[in-house]
Every structure is written in C-alpha cells, then in structure tokens.
C-alpha cells in the first residue's frame, strides 16, 4: 500500500489517489498490483466522508465506475466496486450520479457471474441504487436482472443441497445470499407488477429456509432477509411447492419452528434479548404466516391452529399461563414491552381463528381478545359477554369467555359457613363485631360495623 507523509492532509491524499486512477484509465500505466493497491487505499479513506470529497464528485464516481465495470483486471475491478459501494452508502447523492452516468447495466452484468464476491458487491450496489430510480422494471426484463438473480438463488440452493442441515455455509456465501435477498425484496417492492418473474425461485428459497441451521436467536441474517424476500412473492402461484403433496405442513412447520425459537416467556426472570429482537424484527415473519394461512389447504390450517392457539389441555387453567408457544404469544400480545409486535400477533391469532370475533374470543378468551377487537373496530360479540357457557368444540365442552379456562376445570368456591354450626356462626359474628368496634375506636378510619348495620336493617335472625 502506498504511504504518504503525515504532514499531508487527508483531502490532498485522496485527490492524489483519484488523479492516479484517472490517468491510469487513459495510459494504463499501472500494474495490476499497483492499481489494486491504489484502489484499496482509496477504499480505506472513503469509509469516512470527512475530507474525502474527491471520491463523491461526478468525476470521482465515474472513475470508480470505469475501473469497476471496464474489467481491466478482476482484482482491481472488485476493489473499485467496494469503493463504489461505500460511496453509495455514505453519500446517498452519489446514487443519482451513478444512474446519470449510465452504469446500472454494467452493475447488472457483473451479477451474472458465478462469483460470490461479485454477487455480493453487485447486489449491494444495485440495492442502494434502487432507492433512486424508477427503472427497476427495465432492469428486470431488458437488462435480464431477474434471470441473473434467479440463477444466483439457484446456485445457493445447490450449495445447500450438498450440505447437511446442521452444517453452515461459508461466511462469504452468507454475505452474498443476504445481499441478494435484500435486493430481491427491493426489486419486488418497487416493481410489484413483476413479482411473477421470480416465481421459479420460490422452491429454492424454501429449500434454503429448511436447510439453514437456526441459531439461538434465529431472526438474524440471513433468515430475516429470506423471510422479507418471501413476503413480496406470489406464493399462491407456487402452492405445490409451498404445500408439498407429500407433506403439506413441511414449510409451515419450519416457519413456526422459527417463531417458536424467537419467542420467550416475557415473565421469565432473565434478560429478554430474544423478545427484544423479536419485537424489532418479528413483524415480517408474522405477516408471512398470515399470508400463508390465507392460502393454506385444510391440513396446513389445522396445523397452524393447533400450534398457535391454546389446546384443550391448556384450558384446565386460565390460558396464557404456561410455557407453550400459544401461551407465550398471548402473553407477548399483551406485553407493554412488545409495542412493535403486539398488534401483529393479535392479528395473526384473529386470522387463525378464521377472522371470526366469536371464535376468536372462544380461542383466546375475552381478556386477550378485547384489545384487538376494540382497536380494529370489530364489534364485540354480545353472546361472548352475556353467556359464560360458550362451547368451543363439537363435544360441547364449555369455557369461561374471559379467561378461556374450561368451566369444568375452574376451582369451585367453597362456602366458608357451610360446615359451621349455628353456635359457631354466632361466635364468628360476635368476634367480627368486636374487631370492628376496636377499629372504630382507633379513629384511623370511619367505618360502620357491618354486624351493627345488619342488625339495624333487620337482617339478623334471633336463635333459640
């Protein structure tokens, strides 16, 4: 790497490097090693926008683009792409310069190569530039970006096919795949009318989702980006892949497994790092489950209802008290520490209850259901409030609509006087009378003795 005097300002050093690269475009006077070293040094300076202005001018961006996409040599081209990616990230105004210079197609063309380095850098550059262009449909079809991106996803699918479920891909593969997923999300977001161009990637995305080893905190890269990407795709057109005929719950079970690993009991006495992460990153996963439930066949719907709603076994006690997934979701849906995810969870449970208010109350109890129904403007079912014997299954078993507990499992309140003799009742009344008289004499509170009040109201019966 070139060295410079400590007395030379950063700005002048950056300008000197840009000038060297500019001359090299015309004269080709640098060796491949010297060119790559110069670009690497410029990349280090460009990580901080302070006194790096020559990089972010139109001339600076054009010099980087020419070195990146003219393919003088691959090592230098990759370094130039790294400089360019940093510039587009740090100074958003450079994205428009990049587009005006006409290098979008050059970046797309670098995406088609079977190279994880090139995929990572091209995906990041294109991802950043999507925020500054209306030409995404043109990229997808005329520049064939949709084909290149589908091919890249297919390559990742093949890599996952060769490894066992408990193995991990390389760090570079993870980075490249993550950037591709981010780009896929933006492309389908800004050009929703073109999502059908990515239908052939749906099987590979679900394959990767299943084969990817889950960490203790699963909602991190690349799982979060993969879930985000699936969210915008037309899954109904690939129903045979989403719900395989051999096992229709195959992919649904995987998504719920991710959900299960992502949610802890908010009442446990430990740090809630998992729930904090879920509150920040869980909304796309919940939304994807809602989308899948809507198009699910009966078997998959029944599986989701079984996993996400309280079981009859749980209803032996007030629901939401044990450690099952359904209970943890209910607790989180009512937790003040989960402000971002609460409404999403409640909406999921409502839709899994077939979007029926009465069924929703039967499934989760009025205590949990009321907040969602009121915030969504859904009229509360009067039958749920007037009748404490709402049956929730074909067997006719009835449940308390407030707590969700089966009525036949609720503790029976015992009359404390049922086993007392008349003499014992009279003694208890005298004892209470004396206690209240002593309380009045303290002057701390002004209280009327309930025994005295009952006597005045004629509610005492004189015993023989």
TrEMBL record:
Record's superkingdom? Eukaryota
* GO CC terms, sorted: cell cortex
UniProt keyword annotations, A-Z: Chaperone, Cytoplasm, Guanine-nucleotide releasing factor
> Major place of localization?
cytoplasm
Pfam families found in the cross-reference section: Ric8
GO MF, any single term:
guanyl-nucleotide exchange factor activity
- Give me any GO biological process, just one: G protein-coupled receptor signaling pathway
Provide the protein's localization.
Cytoplasm, Cell cortex
Asked if Transferase is a keyword of the record, the answer is no
For this chain, the family text in UniProt reads: Belongs to the synembryn family.
Q: Which PANTHER family match?
A: SYNEMBRYN
**UniProt protein name:** Guanine nucleotide exchange factor
Q: What organism does this protein naturally occur in?
A: Tuber borchii
């Amino acid at each position: 790497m070139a060295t410079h005097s400590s007395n030379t300002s950063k700005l002048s050093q950056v300008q000197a490097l840009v000038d060297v690269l500019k001359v090299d475009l015309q004269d080709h006077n640098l060796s491949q090693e010297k060119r790559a070293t110069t670009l690497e040094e410029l990349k280090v300076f460009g990580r901080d926008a302070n006194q790096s202005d020559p990089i972010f001018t139109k001339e600076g961006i054009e010099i980087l683009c020419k070195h990146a996409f003219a393919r003088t040599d691959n090592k230098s081209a990759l370094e130039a792409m790294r400089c360019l990616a940093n510039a587009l990230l740090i100074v958003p105004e450079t994205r428009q310069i990049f587009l005006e210079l006409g290098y979008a197609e050059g970046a797309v063309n670098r995406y088609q190569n079977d190279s994880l380095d090139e995929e990572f850098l091209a995906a990041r550059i294109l991802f950043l530039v999507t925020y500054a262009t209306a030409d995404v449909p043109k990229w997808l079809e005329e520049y064939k970006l949709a084909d290149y991106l589908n091919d890249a996803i297919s390559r990742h699918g093949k890599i996952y096919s060769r490894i066992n479920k408990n193995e991990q891909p390389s760090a570079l593969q993870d980075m490249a795949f993550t950037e591709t997923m981010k780009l896929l999300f933006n492309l389908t977001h800004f050009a929703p009318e073109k999502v059908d161009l990515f239908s052939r990637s749906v099987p590979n995305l679900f394959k990767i989702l299943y084969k990817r080893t889950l960490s203790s905190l699963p909602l991190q890269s690349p799982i979060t980006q993969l879930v985000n990407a699936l969210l915008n795709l037309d899954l109904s057109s690939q129903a045979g892949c989403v719900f395989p005929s051999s096992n229709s719950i195959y992919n649904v079970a995987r998504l719920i497994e991710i959900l299960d690993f992502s949610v802890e009991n908010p009442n446990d006495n430990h740090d809630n790092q998992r729930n904090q992460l879920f509150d920040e990153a869980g909304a796309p996963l919940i939304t994807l489950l809602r989308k899948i439930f809507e198009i699910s066949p009966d078997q998959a719907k029944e599986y989701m209802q079984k996993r996400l709603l309280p079981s009859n076994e749980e209803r032996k006690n007030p629901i939401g008290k044990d450690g099952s997934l359904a209970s943890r979701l209910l607790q989180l849906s009512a937790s003040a520490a989960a402000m971002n995810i609460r409404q999403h969870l409640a909406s999921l449970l409502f839709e899994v209850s077939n979007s029926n208010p009465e069924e929703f109350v039967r499934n989760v109890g009025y205590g949990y259901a009321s907040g969602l129904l009121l915030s969504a403007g859904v009229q509360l079912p009067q039958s749920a409030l007037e009748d404490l014997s709402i049956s929730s299954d074909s067997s006719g078993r009835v449940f308390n609509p407030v707590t969700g507990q089966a009525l036949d499992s609720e503790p029976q309140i015992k009359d404390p006087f049922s086993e007392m003799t008349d003499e014992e009742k009279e003694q208890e009344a005298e004892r209470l009378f004396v206690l209240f008289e002593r309380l009045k004499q303290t002057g701390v509170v002004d209280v009327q003795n309930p025994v005295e009040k009952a006597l005045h109201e004629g509610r005492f019966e004189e015993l023989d």
